[in-house]
């Protein structure tokens, strides 16, 4: 199952960008033997401002995908539950899983409603660069858990 992080906006050179690259590479390398990966990050720019225009730009990258919207009203999951969810989707034959990260004002409500699921990073508000880093790290952690690596929370 291919995994994508599709996000509004481009990250400049920053520590967060380096973290995203590191975790995406690790998740891709560790996930291939498990049928998870590659993991990719797609940065999308909207030609017009506003959530609706951003949603249209994001939709262009969702063809034949199981879509999870990163949204504050979504469900927060433990790392183990997140790993189990990835494994379940893979085992059900999902070929591509996409996580959406919206712009500064979040995702368009219609796009969130059309998503197959919603994921929250907790009740706090996080900068987009950190949200990408946190999501890529959790994908890597999920792959590691599924690979049988020791997990200190078990």
Describe, in plain words, how this protein is organized in 3D.
- The protein has 154 residues and is an alpha/beta fold.
- It has a single domain, classed as 3-Layer(aba) Sandwich (Alpha/beta knot).
- It has helices at residues 15-31, 51-59, 79-91, 109-114, 128-146; strands at residues 2-8, 39-44, 66-75, 96-101, 117-119.
- Strands 2-1-4-3-5 form a five-stranded parallel beta sheet.
- The model has no long low-confidence stretch (mean pLDDT 93).
CATH class group = Alpha Beta
> Oligomeric status of the shown chains?
single chain
Distance between the termini: 26 Å
Whole-number average pLDDT? 93
- Give the % helix: 40-55%
CATH fold-level topology: Alpha/beta knot
Low-pLDDT segments: none
CATH architecture: 3-Layer(aba) Sandwich
Features:
5-stranded parallel β-sheet, Alpha/beta knot, alpha/beta, globular, 5 strands, 154 residues
Task: Please outline the helices and strands.
Blueprint: E1 2-8, H1 15-31, E2 39-44, H2 51-59, E3 66-75, H3 79-91, E4 96-101, H4 109-114, E5 117-119, H5 128-146
Helix pairs in contact: 1-5, 3-5
């Amino acid at each position: 199952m291919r995994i994508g992080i599709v996000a509004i906006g481009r990250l400049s050179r920053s520590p967060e960008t380096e973290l995203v690259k590191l975790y995406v590479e690790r998740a891709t390398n560790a996930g291939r033997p498990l049928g998870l990966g590659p993991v990719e990050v797609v940065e999308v720019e909207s030609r017009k401002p506003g959530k609706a225009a951003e949603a249209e730009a994001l939709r262009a990258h969702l063809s034949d995908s199981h879509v999870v919207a990163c949204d504050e009203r979504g469900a927060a999951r433990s790392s183990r539950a997140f790993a189990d969810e990835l494994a379940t989707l893979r085992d059900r034959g999902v070929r591509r899983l996409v996580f959406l990260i919206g712009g500064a004002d979040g995702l368009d409500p219609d796009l969130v409603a059309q998503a197959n699921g919603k994921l929250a990073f907790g009740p706090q508000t996080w900068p987009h660069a950190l949200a990408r880093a946190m999501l890529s790290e959790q994908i890597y952690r999920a792959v590691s858990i599924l690979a049988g690596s020791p997990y200190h929370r078990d």
